[in-house]
Amino acid sequence: DKLLFLWSFTVSIFGIGGLLGSSGSRYLAVKFGKKKCLLCNNVLMIVAASIMGCSKISQSFEMILIGRFMCGVSAGLCVPLHHQYVGEISPRKLRGFANSTSSFFWTLGKAIGQISGQRELLGSQALWPLLMASCGLPALVQLFTLPFLPESPPYLLMQKGDQEGCKKAIRQLWGEGQHQAEIDDIMKEKATMKNTKILSVLELVKEPAFRWQLYMIVTLTATIQLCGINAV
């Protein structure tokens, strides 16, 4: 019973960390910007991967629990931040395509993880620490490549009020040309946001106007696990 509890807790603690990470993603994104948050998030994932990778040498299952929790926090932060950042740095014509690639690579990552976890590959008794530490590899790649990209133009203009920085970021991302229409759109969004109240999670649940939208999202999220996407 004790072993079963530890297995269950090891699996579920990832989701607990994810809940905490996603809950704080909005505040961190507004405070520090998407790019800085993603960079710091990579460091968190690398630390988590290192802890889990060293758990066998240290003979400590507690390190697996800690690493899984940190991975969950990192994933909870990464998913909303990644979608926002990719959408905001993409040109309008490619924005829908860029956002859809996130879901594709998310599913591809799950498939690669499941394949790598087979006993014939990294799921053996000798190599499973490498499997658990492998989540740090994509984070390491992004940690070295993301600094070459600018901060999100909407963040620079809406949160920082840096119009020149916004124009510079747009030129770096989309090339030289007339981008005044995109800047005007961001300014309109900023003006709209001033008159819009940002609801907390509790206020959102209590708001009658969003009740049916909330029902639809909960139903969709719950039933998507039954559609076979992971198997595909």
From TrEMBL:
Subcellular location: Membrane
SUPFAM superfamilies linked: MFS general substrate transporter (SSF103473)
Pfam families: Sugar_tr
Main location: membrane
Domain Major facilitator superfamily (MFS) profile: 1-232
UniProt membrane topology term: Multi-pass membrane protein
Alphabetized GO MF terms: D-glucose transmembrane transporter activity
InterPro entries: GLUT, MFS_dom, MFS_sugar_transport-like, MFS_trans_sf, Sugar_transporter_CS
Keywords annotated in UniProt: Membrane, Transmembrane, Transmembrane helix
UniProt xrefs under Gene3D superfamilies: MFS general substrate transporter like domains
Annotated GO biological process: D-glucose import; dehydroascorbic acid transport
Transmembrane segments: 6-25, 37-58
GO cellular component: plasma membrane
PANTHER family xref list: MAJOR FACILITATOR SUPERFAMILY (MFS) PROFILE DOMAIN-CONTAINING PROTEIN (PTHR23503:SF54), SOLUTE CARRIER FAMILY 2 (PTHR23503)
Protein name: GTR5 protein
Organism: Setophaga kirtlandii
